[in-house]
Specification:
The complex is a heterodimer of chains A (349) and B (882). With 349 residues, chain A is of the alpha+beta class. Chain A has 11 helices and 9 strands. In chain A, the strands form 2 sheets. In chain A, strands 1-4-5-9-8-7-6 form a 7-stranded mixed β-sheet, with helices on both faces. In chain A, helix 5 crosses helix 10. Chain B is α+β, with helices and mostly antiparallel strands and 882 residues long. Helix content of chain B is 23%, strand content 28%. Chain B is built from 20 helices and 44 strands. Chain B has a 7-stranded mixed β-sheet with strand order 30-33-34-40-39-36-35. In chain B, strands 3, 4, 5, 6, 11 and 12 form a 6-stranded antiparallel β-sheet that branches. In chain B, strands 15-16-19-22-23-24 form a 6-stranded mixed β-sheet. The radius of gyration of chain B is 40 Å and the shape is elongated. Classes of the chains: A alpha+beta (349), B alpha+beta (882). Chains A and B meet through helix 5, strand 1, strand 3, helix 7 and strand 4 of A and helix 7, helix 10, helix 12, helix 13 and strand 30 of B.
Chain lengths: 349, 882
Amino acid sequence: MSDPASELSELTSVEASIALRIATASEPDELSALANEVNGRGSVFVAARRQIGSLPPDERRQVGRAVHDAMKRLESLLIQRREELEASGEELRRRVERLDLTEVVPVRRRGHLHLVSQAQMELEDVFLGMGFVVAEGPEIETDWYNFEALNMPRDHPARGMFDTFYLRAGEPGSLMLRTHTSPVQVRLMESESPPISAVMPGVVHRRDTADARHTPTFHQIEGLVVDQGVTFADLAGTIEAFTGAYFGPSSRSRLRPSYFPFTEPSAEFEITCTICGGSGCRTCSGTGWIELGGCGLVDPAVFEAVGIDPEVWTGFAFGFGIDRCVQMRHGIADIRVLMENDLRFLEQF
Amino acid sequence: MGTMRVTKSWLAEFAPFDLDASEIAATLDDLGMVVEGVDEVGAGLGDDVIVARVLEIASVPNADRVRKVTVDIGGDVVDVVCGAWNFAAGDLVAMAKVGAELPGDVKIGRRKIKGVASEGMLCSGVELGLSADASGILVLGSGAGGTEVAPGTAVLDALGIRADVVFDLAIEANRPDAMCVAGVARDLAARLKLPFFLPDHKLDDHQVVTRASTNDAGPVSVTDDALVSLVLEDTLNCPRFSATCITGVKVGQSPAWVASRLVLAGMRPINSIVDASNYVMLELGQPTHPYDLDSLAGGIVVRSSRDGDTLETLDGVERNLSSKEPAAVEGAGQSPVGGGDCLICDAEGKPVAIGGIMGGTSTQITPATTRLLLEAAYFLPLAIARTSKRLGLRTEASMRFERGCDPEGIDRAVARLCSLILETSEAGKPSIVSSLDARGKAPSTHRARLRLGRINAILGTRLAPGDVETHLGPMGFVLRADAGVGVGETQRVWDVDVPTWRPDVEREIDLVEEVARQHGYSRIPRTRRLGTRIGVLSPHQRTRRLVREVMVGLASCEAWTPTMVSARDHAVIGLPGGVELANPLNREELVLRRSLLPGLLRSCYLNHSRRRDEVLLFEIGRIFDGPADSSGTDDLSAAPYLPVVASGWSQEVPREREVLGALFAAGSDGILEAVQAWHVLAGALGLARFEDGLDPCVEIIAGSPPGLHPGRSAWIVAGQLRPGAASGASSVETGPEARLGCVGEVSRSAREAFGLGAHKGTIGWLEVDLARLCDAPKRSRIARAASKFPSNDVDLAFAVEDTVPASVVEAVLSRAGGELLESVQLFDVFRGGSLGDGQRSLAYRLRFCALERTMSDAEVGELRAACISAVQRALPAKLRGN
């Protein structure tokens, strides 16, 4: 039996040798073998621990601690090295599997709704929320629906407000492309009894040469409310409500007197300019206001034409151009691009 | 809508408007006389803008649009180059000298134009900011007699324009009273609570004898026995005609104050007589017309037009006035107003003017005119509107007459005109010698009842009786409270006399509007009614939105193409005919589209030409069936379609249908994309599909829809469709079928016609009728549990005749497999090999599964056998591999 001092120094050199091998191990298997040398069957440390009992009592403590500490140090080195090896393996895999996500080319395209559709649906939704239904009617109209029932008998000067496309069908002048969505009001009042609250979006046609602000075919949306006790104040309040909902809560609206054969009193309604917010710019000619559409209380003559008693029922109507809204909202210089269908335009929205 | 340019100084002659221009503009706006522009005039133009006399006009070599004009600018003679032609040597014109500054920061410099040095610029009214007239140079005088402005005088001095403000007003069609300065002033004064003063001109002041005659029923004649006679035949269209004669007139230039007001109002001074007539029209709203009395053969006849009537009007156009002349605008329609055009004729019946619209050249005022006949009349608004529209001729006079002039304003206007002519004629000794007045049935004055309760119920206001009276009174309405009705204040009822200058006000509601206008729309409260109804979309509208979403999900972009197409567009897709416009803008937009295909092909071409080769576009829009005689053609209209909106539909109206059209021109096989799109759409809409063995159902059946490749396209049909046993080649029994639309490949000829011949793949097309789609048979929406037990796959390959659609085989398998068949999938199609001509192999994978148990091999075997025998029994098909 060697003396404790030499035994301790031997253990120290063994520890140093194993520590070196742990540090240089490159495979998990090597570490397993080394772990065996630290605390397995053939471990010198285990053997040394076993012999502690044979040492003199005053040395037991010293040797026991030395053996225990050496084993702990090596075990800790093993764990550390194992982690290092695992990390580098992960790293390697990561390197191999690395993918630059910005190299992914977007091949799967999405389609795009037309700006006018988007605006129309958005407006419809605002009105649905206010309890309106959406009503629609034909684009080919008769003189009765487009003009006569709307208080515009033949030769009425107000017909001049509408440049009309007539059809070469039926009696000359009897069939036309509707010049506004108002005929749907008449159809609605003929087919349903009040109370009515509906919006009527749709395509209309006017015999205007196309320019930056006009196309012969365009979209309108029109509203109609008929009930007992409907007032001009209700009209003003409704316009304020929907312009606020569609153009944003900061937008304001105002009415000023105007003339339409099918409403009385009649008004134009204006909103604060969507470009400058009311401070005045080129779009609004410095006024801060943009004319949006026409409105008014349903003229008693219209009620009489559809068989509704104007002494019992009152109502209001309003209408405006969807395309013009779109043009203002998106700063479109020439409205004809809406019908051009250039994908580079359509895909922006 | 009419436009009126009124100056602040002219308005101020009728009421003390001591306000800023911006306040006046805001008030006019709020009254419904929309201010489209406010021009400050007279302040900016300096002494460099002068009157010049044209000495000589010479052509410029190699230039046919401009001429060299030599002018006297007051002590100096210079050349300017000018592109306008509305003046002659001797005329006095407006000119900006070198160094002058014009409105809009335009600086006039010395320039060389076409090799000629130009020492300044001749100017139009627009360039000087004085009028809206851009049609020619501002001519200040013809130099033919009268007082003359010396060349070199500043234009503003010559016109007597002081600093003033011009309001450019848009006047609504129902406000004839506001088509004059006095009318605008009346409305404005009423709102501002200012006293309104209308000078009371009377012809009597001139000691003129007026001879009048009235006849409610027939022609009216009146004569002064010496000078002139007047016969009013057409009392229907012209209920009143007055003729006033002045002799000893010397025609000259108008004084500056008259000319300047005309210029600022946008009219061109012509001579002292015509200018006076225009001045009165602008001031009082009553158009008048001066004739050279000596060219009238001693009198006037007012009659309806007859065949053969012609007249050269003052604009130099020879006009055919035959009553049978077709309308200038087709479709303008017939009029309930009797007779033809109302013509003013001389004593011999030769037309000399189109009543209320324009005079003729033969009787116009010339420098030699010494005797005048002044016309002031009332014409029926509808008659003027009809004639003006038929002739396509709108004038300042017709615009006023068709809106309705004040029938009682004639006397005031005549007196004002006479005094103006006397006042502005500096030479000669004119005197009014005669005034004839013929009257038929005068338009009745209106009286309406007005209930305070109704006003407040309509407007949502709480106005008191006094409010109503202060709003209406100053505008000329006379209110008399009806003592018999409504003792309480809130129940006040009035009888209202409507002034004759407000023909638009007939009913109570018209008065309510006037109250609202004067009260101010902005002072009416804003309230919101809570709807009693629920806002929901209809099934059709929900379907439309779903279809849009599906198409966008399929990477297609929504397009919007024209409703009007050319006849050729239809011809190239094999859809002749269609509803034509009576008055198209051009030949390219003549016919209402019968299909969305041409429009989308054109859009596709546009994108190709801009280097976007991959095009997926769709549109949801109306198409219009051809006239009834097209029923033989193989198009969608052959099926009995319901109109989009059923109510009020009349048989004579051409049918219109809302359809989805989708074009697939991306990738190599657009046709496959189109068919896939149909399946996705059918799935999204929950349609009952034929191949699932459902009945009724939808199915695609080979056919040749217009514009598509005949062998590579199909109709989409809905109805009672069963795979039939003995139904021959197609193996599909179609019950009362209806076509939903079509799908397939765009034909080569259609592609080529739209410049898409070189597109590298096939172009697919899908068209579906939305109303039909909405009504198409749907599969059950009851949930079906998914089994937790193992499923069993059975693969079956059949040799099937080419004439039998694969979907028929699938439908037979689906029916035979019954409840336990979870899915059928066609996984292989193979031609050639050992198969005979006209045959192909169709391999299906059938997956069986029971909900509550694992199926036994025997059970699966039985189903397999049942499926095989069903196919072999029903169809010309044979199981392969046995």
